Fold these 2 entries.
Entry 1:
Amino acid sequence: MKARVLVRLKEGILDVQGGTVKRALAGLGFAEVRDVRVGKVVEVDVEGDSAEAASARIREMCAKLLANPVTEDFTVEILPPR
Amino acid sequence: MKFGVVVFPGTWSDCDFHYVISEVLHQPVKYLWHRESDLSDFDCVILPGGFSYGDYLRAGAIAGRSPVVGALPEFIARGGHVLGSCNGFQILCEAGLLPGALMRNECLQYRCQSTFLRVENAESSFTRAMRPGQVLKMPISHGEGKFFADHATLQGLRERKQIVFRYCAEDGRATKESNPNGSLDNIAGIVNEAGTVLGLMPHPERAAESAMGGTDGLLVFHSLLGSLVEDGTFLKR
């Protein structure tokens, strides 16, 4: 079963990378960009067929390693089987 | 006092620490591979700078879950000392052994330069040979050294005097210009509540002989070794 974890900086925490990307976009003529925030995607493939159980385990992985609770939030999305 | 210098894949300051402890301070020291978990032979464990595990995921994230770091809570509980510099500070925060987190430098640049540090707390095991307010010179070399903590955590750090070093100007003022990475409250180094675990972004091991451009880093070691330091000079052992 595949899951997609989105890890991003908590709201209110200054994202200096996002700010730089925003300025670069403005330099390319995308003046309408109000804000950019950069996060990361972690794709996890786990054994088992219960989406609920997989989701719980992956949340545990996020709390223990994939995200830093001081600075980051995460969401877990179980992907539909192909 | 017996030192253990931890080596992760990607550590780069291990040899520098080993050299300073053995050749400058003449103290017993051994390298500790990251898979070790028996720390019974050591009094002080050093987590050196570098890019442990390539800093994959986040700086210090993987190292913070390694066997040797997993053995640290028990080591600390029985009175052991831990010094994490640069990547070592990131690892200590990632492992939850110190509060807060180290984030990308606000300037987005990797900063390799000399900095001035003001001693905020001269009572910890790592700073007892310093004077409160003393200005030290030590180099930094990092891309992710901006200390961050939420408001309540910062208040706690202040109240319990856990902030030991702040970036400052040469005259000791903690100004915005003297803050090389946008660190919260100019924080360069903190200790745990007991004062037995130090995390700092600067490199004391790179300021340990006059040929390196300064010896202020030795004060950290001499504090640990219980030596007296007065006016920038130290008693040779």
Entry 2:
Amino acid sequence: MWRNLPLLPERASTFAPEVDALYGFLVGMSVFFIALIFILITVFAIKYRRRSEGEVPRPVRGSLALELTWIVIPLGLVLTIFGWGAALYFKMYGRAPADALELYVVGKQWMWHIQHPTGQREINELHVPAGRPVKLTMATEDVIHSFYIPDFRVKKDVVPGRYTTLWFEATRPGRYRLFCAEYCGTKHSEMTGWVIVMDPVEYQNWLSSGSGVRTESLAQAGERLFQQLACHTCHREDGQGRGPSLRGLFGRPVQLADGRTVVADEAYLRESILHPNAKIVAGFPSPSDMPTYQGQITEEQLLQLVAYLKSLGAGGEQR
Amino acid sequence: MSTPAIESPRVNYLNVSYGVRSWLLTTDHKRIALLYLLSVTLFFFLGGFFAVLIRLELMTPPGDLVQSETYNRLFTMHGVIMIFFFLIPAIPAVLGNFLVPLMIGARDLAFPRLNLLSWYIYTLGGLFTLAAAILGGVDTGWTFYTPYSSTYSNSNVMLTAVGIFITGFSSILTGLNFLVTIHKMRAPGMTWFRLPLFIWAHYATSLIMILGTPVVAIAILLVGLERLFHIGIFDPRLGGDPLLFQHLFWFYSHPAVYIMILPAMGVINELITCFARRRIFGYHFIAFSSIAIATLGFLVWGHHMFTSGQSVYAGMVFSALTMLVAIPSAVKVFNWTATLYKGSVSYQAPMLYALGFIGLFTIGGLTGIFLATLAVDVHVHDTYFVVAHFHYIMVGGTIMAYLGGLHYWWPKMTGKIYPEGWARFAALVIFVGFNLTFFPQFVLGYLGMPRRYHVYPEEFQVLNVMSSAGASILGVGYLIPMIYFIWSLRYGPRAPENPWGAKGLEWLVPSPPPPHNFDVTPVVTGEPYEYTPRSEEAHVG
């Protein structure tokens, strides 16, 4: 029976052993304090039990030294735990390593859509290579979802109206459960799937011959969309169009009409497509001539457009 | 009402007048406390009924007892009813209402009619929520996260929200009433540091009630505006921000956790001192730890949002501040333990609840540190670990203290003694059943089982069955006191003025107390919990 009743999930990412170590420390500390309180109460309750009805104890009035002891020691402990937890949190939620594989996730009631840069698409399955950082850029079509892989100890909410990101590095090939952790409506508990970690060679095979083969990459799909929506008629590459040229835009600072400078990241591109008036580039008319694409395109198409614009990125090389 | 007048010639608050009208129009804080007792008990068993169905469904991995639509409504109604209609009012509105004037030597609360109004408001809010339940329920979770609640859910969101909105005002009125009463109506000689710690705890609670409740009312109002008039506040497609709701909601709802636990801590002070016959250890530290918890409670709401995409720096600040809450909580636990030292400890039922409270609250508090730890929270957030943690605080903490307090003051409230053997047995059953129900959920959570899951993977079944088995024991444990309390009203022996040999002004008046509490206003000359004449005290440290 106990073989079927583990106390810890599998450790299948680089974060897992680190989170478990901190968890182990917390469990140890809790056991210590619970034992301390339990033993003290038991001993006092037995030793000082009422022996006669009229008994009047000679009580102790209080002790500043004791009070300070049980303020200072727990304070030191919790601050240590805070520091430990914060450092690890910064690593988990900080910038993904530069060589991370970038994948795109869209949550919608009640499934996960995954897009690979090479064009593969999956539903409720995510294939990743072991030993390489993977960065997920996530969006939702409807309500808040939360992308959760217990065996990796990672979780991040997917929030309407913005991109959230999550990164991890899987360490062991295998199949790991994927859950939606934020309640999202009727079939919340069925918004689950599998993360399939493969060793790098197998992963390459999967990319080239697996079920998910596509003829066009994500950026190419975005480019097609760019033509279809006639974005190119205004955003001309020669800079002579009614809108700014988008070549080499990604990752660069942009001077705005109101004097601010912002970096053209995914969030900026997303906002500018959905709400063209939110941030007007210096030198272009305000309000913008561009129509809003809010409600016109899906989050997945939006991610394709963003992937296309990224491919025109700072380096300018097209994938 | 069956006791004939000849047997009990003394006029008390129960026999001073009869008839439904005399209860529905009463302004006596003691009668209003009993009205609340009846109402919160009804809601407790209704909320408990939903819990029974949840635990039955979770015996097996597939959804085979009810549909997902129904399951989602069950856990939502369970949460809404237990939190807003049982846990928040339970101790303040029942025990607090009954005891605050008695403990400080006053004849009633400062605003007796406002007190009655607060019960009517509570009842009105309850009726709205009951109507929502009967008309099909609500499926948003008790947290009402947007944009699901404001745009997507097609259940009775507004009806439930209006119920909660209305009930909030009863909290505000009760809090206001307590604050004014504690400030203005203390008997001569009842200085701040002679107040029983029960009063300090209720003072801190009242502060949270009047400062926090308006914010959740605002949040609910805004959800209503968005739902009914499509004004963009939370839904990004209308130009809103879904995280704004979480900030507003938790700005109230985290302090609300302290509304539930602070009065419980207040009760424990009274029980421990009485059954150890000891002055409380570290009176000032316990008193100010209540205020510290109430104050810090307003600064930690963001710890519900570590994975929400809020800034990592905000997360860091909220984590650090949350860690600080551990200190006043630990101060209380250590002081209660130290109070037993060299005491004269007896184990009547109220004391068993108090000791049970200390154990369960310690576990609940320590697991709170796990959740405050950023990197660990990323993994266990929105899993059964959280469910287990807050049930240890709210059920293991608040309900244990509520039951302990109810047993302790039952003779005072009703003039009757309940059967002690059954009471001890029930306390034990509840303690064991509680741990069997909720401890496995810590393990489930760390293994990764998300909360609010109707259907779950097979590997989680063993622990879920353990939890459901425990819940059946816990359920029986809650029914036993209900039965013998009712039994004692008719058949229980007459209670003396002070059955426990306790200190405190409420034990100086007859049981049940006369309509205006004190025939002569008492004059207080000593500190609370003076179980030993001061001359005989030892001093260490």
